[in-house]
Design goal:
heterodimer; A: alpha/beta; 33% helix
């Protein structure tokens, strides 16, 4: 059995003003994978490609071992997509949207649907247009979870949600993956949430993947370094070292512990070097800045 | 107010620059070929309230209200650009053309047509703006009966503005009918002036959302019961399209005998004559516009376990079947009303109706490709206009060629829809609807 839920290899999609890729992403089965990146990085484009919304110019996408294009219907039977961009207004009422979606899935879980409707304070008679933004996101999640998908793909699901709704959404997601069989791929700007809930992350910027791996390993791999230069040395970015800011002779940098940056700094006149743990947000900002330079 | 008017003209000058000279060119060309001053009327569909609706679609109402202007000022400025200005320009230009043409040909017999054209333009611009002030925002909650009736009334006015010109073209002006037209135009124009502020306020409002948690209804909703999936989608498309189509043909069946008895030249029994395919063509297109709402959630449709081929086939076949069935029902209705025998398939093909139905299906890939916005509208109007003119040449097609061409067009539409669903990224961009509703997601 394939141990990866999603494998994206050398994916390229060209637009007149933007090129996604080549992208390589691996989402292990049973993982909660966070895809992070600044606005316009290509996250939604990458996720859209999985569902055939636009055709990739080259590369492959395999979902549960199936080709996303050749086995399109089978992939969509086993994967669900949640995004605030998905529009259900045409169905008028919550119940009608449920009726429409349920028709596609023989394994639709009515009990789960009822439970989620209760948890999300939704009623099948509610008019979709009068639902709040958060309630619409919850409806989208309800429609996805009730079909018991093996893979759940969420594009910015917590955008516009209040803290309580956000917690509710993540609680339902955790419940959905507690059996270890279900995989979640989530793209979000809520980095603190992702750090808490995901076990894998991929960082994407300007259409390229900057890094990918287990969240704890990645966060553990990097450190925020603070040091002083005594002899007027100017430190520049190099492999494993991203200079964040400088105040006279006091320096702040992001340091990759898997590189020789630590010893290099010491050998080049950095003194009083102290290392502190990074948050995912620190890491994201630092790497995004480095890429801009 | 002046700044709002100038802003509108600065952004939409190019539409004016196409429409006014275009209209002049067509009028002069047709008049020259007929040796009589003749007018045509599609210009109102491109200017006035239609341009405002595209501004609303882009969320202009909310942003303009953050400027130091009142809703009343904005509303009145919109009335000027949507009613007063186009009516004045079209009237002056038409009168100048009439005088110029009549002096050239020494023939003033087109005066009646010129007066009717100016009056019907006045009426249409006024009606479209008035209709816009009460048109339900797509997505707004007009749940109660009064709200629905109000929405239907203004929606019908908006729809009639598009087909009304076909009636006006054939009317024979008399003092009474001219006065009636003028009075109607003045009334809707004045009403539009007073409702302009309301239009701005309503469009700037976000849709009211329900507080959570809500009070549950005592009787559980049964809206989730029944079959779902693609069949449910097809059923919904059918109901909306057929409902609109039957309503239009029914109005046609009621209005045509009335007007025939009043001032039309043609005999009431001649409903399958030359004018019918033109009406039918417009009706079929308006029917197909009903799928615009469904194509707004094409992103979601593509996440369902359905191949692009099946989805494309379902959309095209549903639209095609609905038009065929609705048309057949309309034939039954019209035959009963006019007490004439039901026209056979050969007559229908000969009149180019099958070809018209096939051409109207091109709306499917068009709406998959792009949302209902200004460029889509221009494409549709060009296609509708071109199709209407093409109807005049239908006699040159034999029924077999006409039928074969229809099949080829439908197959082409299917291939285009499938290709767009599979390959186009544009098809999946978040969409807003035309009348300024606040949609969910990135379309804002």
């Amino acid at each position: 059995m394939n141990t990866n839920a999603i494998e994206i290899r050398k994916l390229v999609k060209n637009y007149p003003a933007f090129t996604l890729g080549p992208v390589d992403l691996t989402v292990p089965r049973g993982a909660i994978y966070g895809l992070i990146g600044p606005n316009g990085a290509g996250k939604t484009t990458a996720l859209d490609m999985i569902f055939g919304m636009g055709r990739n110019d080259s590369g492959t996408i395999r979902v549960l071992g199936l080709d996303h294009r050749a086995d399109e219907v089978a992939v969509k039977q086993r994967a669900a997509y949640v995004s605030p961009d998905l529009n259900f207004q045409v169905w008028g009422k919550v119940g009608k949207a449920i009726r429409f979606v349920r028709g596609f899935y023989p394994g639709w879980d009515d009990a789960c649907c009822t439970t989620l409707m209760h948890a999300f304070h939704l009623d099948s008679g509610d008019k979709i247009t009068t639902l709040s933004f958060g309630a619409k996101t919850k409806l989208s999640l309800l429609l996805a979870l009730s079909r018991r998908p093996e893979i759940l793909i969420l594009d910015e699901p917590t955008t516009g949600l209040d803290a309580i709704s956000k917690q509710q959404v993540f609680a339902e997601l955790l419940k959905a993956v507690e059996d270890g069989e279900r995989t979640v791929l989530i793209s979000s700007h809520g980095l603190s949430d992702l750090e808490r809930f995901t076990d894998h992350i991929g960082m994407i910027k300007n259409g390229k993947v900057l890094l990918e791996g287990r969240t704890d390993e990645i966060v553990d791999r990097f450190r925020l370094a603070e040091f002083f230069s005594t002899n007027g040395t100017t430190f520049l970015n190099r492999a494993g070292l991203v200079i964040l800011r400088r105040t006279e002779n006091r320096w702040h940098a992001l340091l990759d512990q898997n590189s020789d940056a630590h010893s290099w700094l010491q050998s080049h006149g950095a003194t009083d070097l102290s290392l502190t743990r990074v948050t995912l947000e620190d890491l994201f900002v630092a790497l995004a800045k480095e890429e801009d330079k | 107010m002046k700044l709002v008017i100038m802003d509108h003209l600065r952004r939409w000058w190019w539409v004016w620059a196409i429409c006014i000279p275009g209209n002049c060119g067509l009028v002069l060309a047709i008049s020259a070929s007929n040796n009589k001053f003749c007018t045509i009327y599609p210009v109102g569909m491109f200017l006035g309230a239609m341009l405002l609706s595209f501004d609303m679609q882009r969320g202009h109402t909310r942003s303009i209200l953050t400027m130091p202007v009142t809703a009343k000022q904005v509303g009145r400025a919109w009335w000027w650009v949507a009613v007063a200005l186009p009516v004045t320009v079209v009237t002056v230009v038409t009168c100048l053309m009439f005088v110029g043409f009549s002096c050239w040909r020494h023939d003033w017999s087109g005066l009646q047509g010129c007066v009717i054209f100016c009056l019907s333009n006045f009426l249409t611009f006024g009606t479209m703006f008035f209709a816009l002030t009460g048109l339900p925002r797509a997505g707004a909650d007009y749940g109660d009966l009064a709200g629905r009736i109000r929405g239907c009334f203004f929606g019908s006015l908006w729809g009639l503005s598009f087909t009304g010109w076909l009636f006006f073209q054939r009317i024979t002006v008399s003092f009474i009918s001219g006065l009636a037209l003028l009075l109607a135009a003045v009334c809707v124009t004045i009403l539009g002036w007073f409702r302009a502020e309301l239009l701005v306020r309503e469009r700037a409002m976000r849709l009211a959302t329900s507080p959570v948690p809500r009070t549950k209804s005592a009787t559980p909703s049964r809206s989730a019961d029944g079959f779902g999936g693609l069949a449910f989608l097809a059923q919904n498309i059918f109901v909306r399209m057929a409902g609109m189509g039957v309503a239009m043909f029914a109005v046609f069946a009621i209005v045509l005998p009335l007007i025939n008895g009043f001032s039309f030249n043609s005999a009431p029994t001649d409903y399958m004559g030359d004018s019918f395919p033109i009406f039918a063509f417009q009706f079929l297109w308006i029917m197909t516009f009903q799928i615009a709402g469904f194509t707004m959630h094409v992103r979601y449709l593509r996440t369902m376990p359905v191949s692009a081929t099946k989805l494309a086939a379902m959309l095209v076949v549903t639209v095609l079947t609905t038009m065929l069935l609705t048309f057949y029902a309309a034939m039954l209705l019209l035959s009963a009303v006019f007490q004439t025998p039901l026209p056979g398939p050969e007559k229908i093909i000969q009149q180019g109706i099958l070809l018209e139905i096939a051409v109207a299906t091109t709306v499917v890939p068009l709406f998959i490709w792009r949302p209902m916005e200004v460029y889509t509208f221009v494409i549709m109007m060009l296609a509708m206009g071109g199709g209407t003119f093409a109807i005049f040449f239908k006699q040159s097609l034999t029924p077999s060629i006409s039928a074969a061409a229809s099949v080829v067009i439908v197959l082409g539409v299917f291939v285009a829809t499938k290709t767009l669903l599979e390959r186009s990224s544009r098809a999946y961009r978040p969409r807003t609807n035309q009348f300024g509703a606040w949609n969910w997601g990135g379309g804002r």
